[in-house]
Design goal:
The complex is a heterodimer. Helix content of chain A is 0%, strand content 56%. Chain B is an all-beta fold. Chain B has no helices and eleven strands. In chain B, the strands form two sheets. In chain B, strands 2, 4, 5, 6, 9, 10 and 11 form a seven-stranded mixed β-sheet that branches. In chain B, strands 1-3-8-7 form a four-stranded antiparallel β-sheet, with no helix packed on it. In chain B, a hairpin with a 2-residue loop joins strand 7 and strand 8. Chain B is globular and about 40 Å long. The chains are: A mainly beta, B mainly beta. At the A-B interface, strand 4, strand 5 and strand 10 of A face strand 5, strand 9 and strand 10 of B.
């Protein structure tokens, strides 16, 4: 069935280094993707989104890359900071209303 | 960004009782709201899609008679866990979709339900 999954469940990164979190999706018809950050005990927080007619989108310190050929999504965080420590989810919009979330990657920033 | 609130943030109830969780969009109208359930260290699992003025659409395996959803206005959706049992203990999160050209959904802070 449809699924969105992540390659790495936990990622440890040195403070100041760049982080790359990956996500694979299986529904080639999906046209909208979102990255969320979730801190412990809180709801997901929107980070950045991208539509399928784009392959790259940049925000403040974050970049999302979309490779539709291999159905792969990545989130790049520049100059990772301790406050970036959280669980990151990719989500795929499948159909008119439904979102499908990936399994999540925990990012640990090492001082 | 848009704000979505949930109430209560935490609730402890006894087995057999019912619990209502409210989800409100504070600064926008949400024709569609979503209810998710999240187990520890797991991803969000969509339970149902709530549309204002109509019946909710439940995901496969989610009991609609146990998880009652009401979306009475464009800013409020409620989830009632009926006859709660310990296995219903979880983190429940709602989100609201801002209409128009944006697909973006805004999440509430979540409600931690513990059934004793």
């Amino acid at each position: 069935g449809e699924s969105v999954g992540l390659h790495l469940p936990t990622l440890s990164v040195q403070e100041g280094d760049n982080s790359i979190i990956n996500c694979a999706y299986s529904n080639s018809a999906s046209d909208y993707f979102i990255w969320y950050k979730q801190e412990s005990g809180k709801g997901p927080q929107f980070i950045i989104d991208i539509r399928s007619n784009m392959d790259k989108r940049q925000g403040q310190r974050v970049t999302v890359l979309l490779n539709k050929t291999v159905k792969h999504l990545s989130l790049q965080i520049a100059a990772t900071q301790p406050g970036d420590s959280a669980v990151y989810f990719c989500a795929e919009k499948a159909g008119t209303y439904k979102y499908i979330f990936g399994t999540g990657t925990r990012l640990k920033v090492l001082a | 960004g848009a704000v979505v609130s949930q109430h209560p943030s935490r609730v402890i109830c006894k087995s057999g009782t019912s619990v209502k969780i409210e989800c409100r969009s504070l600064d926008f109208q949400a024709t569609t709201m979503f209810w998710y359930r999240q187990f520890p260290k797991k991803s969000l699992m969509l339970m149902a899609t709530s549309n204002e003025g109509s019946k909710a659409t439940y995901e496969q395996g989610v009991e609609k008679d146990k998880f009652l959803i009401n979306h009475a206005s464009l800013t409020l959706s409620t989830l009632t866990v009926t006859s709660a049992h310990p296995e219903d203990s979880s983190f429940y999160i709602c989100s609201a979709e801002d209409g128009g050209s944006s697909y973006e959904q805004y999440f509430g802070p979540g409600t931690r339900l513990t059934v004793t």
